[in-house]
Amino acid sequence: MHDLIEALEQKRADARIGGGQARIDSQHAKGKLTARERIQVLLDEGSFEEYDMFVEHRCADFGMEEQKIPGDGVVTGHGTINGRLVYVFSKDFTVFGGSLSRAHAEKIVKVQQAAVRNGAPVIGLFDAGGARIQEGVDSLAGYADIFMENVLSSGVIPQISVIMGPCAGGDVYSPAMTDFIFMVKDTSYMYVTGPDVVKTVTNEEVTHETLGGASVHAKKSGVVDGAFENDIEALTQIRRLIDYLPASNRDKPPIRPVHDAFDRAEASLDTLVPPNPNTPYDMKELITKVVDEGDFFEISPQFGGNILCGFGRIEGSTVGVVANQPMTLAGVLDIDASRKAARFVRFCDCFNIPLVTFVDVPGFMPGTKQEYGGLIKHGAKLLFAYAEATVPKVTVITRKAYGGAYDVMSSKHLRGDVNYAWPTAEIAVMGAKGAVEIIFRKEAGDPEKLAARTKEYETNFANPYVAAKRGYIDDIIMPHNTRKRIANSLRTLKNKSLSNPWKKHDNIPL
Ligand code: HXC
Question: DSSP per residue over 389-411, as a string?
């Protein structure tokens, strides 16, 4: 028996060393942790249980039968984050560059399926060279199996991807179908085809970073939801994110003990909105003053900055916050902001996370760039997402709510449950100046008359009372009481029951 135990220990040790010490050293020299080290940082100490440590590839071409490394380039299993179950797979770049063989894919599919059955999130850590070139079509089949599980799991369990090294070819599409993707700055890159192919096909000269680094995807393409300084920061932030999320669509969001009174008044909010309606202010200040202990996990902070999306808590329970940000492009809705917020709203709706929306929006962005880019379809995504969402929806209009954007931003008309406005709110078809220039065009040559008309329009329409008289907002609230009013509303909505008509699935304008 002793021999058998020793043999097992030896086999385990062989598997743990992956592609060998030299490759591990090279991984460290690039500023990256190994697949197993990453899991250690991600999960609670001692909680990781590994599966399929002895799996080997079955390829017999190109001399591969001589090169077998137990585990075959991916470490899989489950563990806990702050005591809650998660499934993990972590690509091991030291083994065939983390490339995907059929056996490697089967390991990933096994944890994906277990996660769905047992109702727990899947976290994938990527650092790999794509398809195992020696395996050919078997590798492509393996990718497709993973993609299939991604799709079936979507909306059932949270799926999170962290790109921590190369991620190319087949490897990019699995993350692309998960709920959130994060990258590590400088050490990771993500693209469908690499710089060499790009040069051949389009004659463009690009580096890994300028083609698919974190600076590209977190800021320009919006493919990823955040970029972190290094492996440790990324993994620590994923732990923080998981704390906000329900384990599956069968669960409610987790509730944390909280030491922040639900009725905490914030006097400073009474002066947050500047007297001049064109002066920006930081909507993030409102968010952090309303949520528990100022703790806000922002999604895509560097992309579509005119809308803020992220998770906070009210009375210990997770809420999804969406807010126009007057500091960037006056908080206008454009293509990027609409796409970003629509996806976030849908995530919250999938996973029973109530939506809190703060509105200060001058409308949709005008211009050929936006129209040619399909603003109509992209803007409709956000409208669609809010309209179909059946989770509790609480809205606070702080200042502008103009035109179609008023309708879109979780208005009463889209089944907003509780819709508040601050006294500074202006709920109207458009701003006073624009409105007067259109309806009193004939008086354009008379600035005095125009000024009087503008004043008249402001008095009659640029306020929350017209909407309040019609019941389109439920109450006009004191800014300092915003947290208390939202918390009270969410209490009343705890047992909300609302469903959409039966359908196979909807047809959101993609
Ligand atoms: C097999 C691979 C591999 C792969 C890397 N390796 N990629 N083995 N299949 N796809 C091996 C290398 O042979 C090497 O082995 C080790 O991993 C490390 O690779 P290096 O090239 O030395 O590392 P580095 O210089 O850091 O470059 C990393 C890299 C590069 C940029 C990822 O390896 C690379 O370009 N790989 C190929 C990428 C690729 O074209 N993949 C196929 C995409 S097509 P040794 O033994 O020397 O350590 C695809 C289609 C799927 O994925 C579509 C499905 C829908």
Answer: --S-EEEEEEEEEEHHHHHHTT-
What does the block give as tokens for 283? Answer: 């909507």
The reply to whether 404 belongs to the active site is yes
- Distance from C-alpha of 131 to C-alpha of 161, rounded to nearest angstrom: 18
DSSP symbols for 226-248:
-EESSHHHHHHHHHHHHHHS-SS
**Rg (alpha carbons) of the chain, rounded to whole number:** 26
The predicted structure's pLDDT at residue 373: 96
**pLDDT classification of 45: cutoffs 50, 70, 90:** very high
CATH number of 267-425+465-483: 3.90.226.10
- Which residues line ligand 1 at a C-beta cut-off of 6 Å? 23, 96-97, 99, 129-133, 140, 143, 166, 168-170, 173, 194
Catalytic site residue from 119, 373, 404, 434: 404
Smallest CA separation from ligand 1 atom 54, residue: 170
3.90.226.10, 3.40.50.2300, 3.40.50.80, 3.40.640.10: which CATH number matches 2-244? Answer: 3.90.226.10
- 48: pLDDT strictly greater than 80: yes
Angle at 98 between CA 97 and CA 100, to 5 degrees: 115
pLDDT in tens, 382-440: 999 999 999 999 999 999 999 999 999 999 999 999 999 999 999 988 888 888 888 88
Pocket test for ligand 1, best of 99, 150, 151 (most atoms within 8 A of CB): 99
Do the beta carbons of residue 164 and residue 186 sit within 8 Å? no
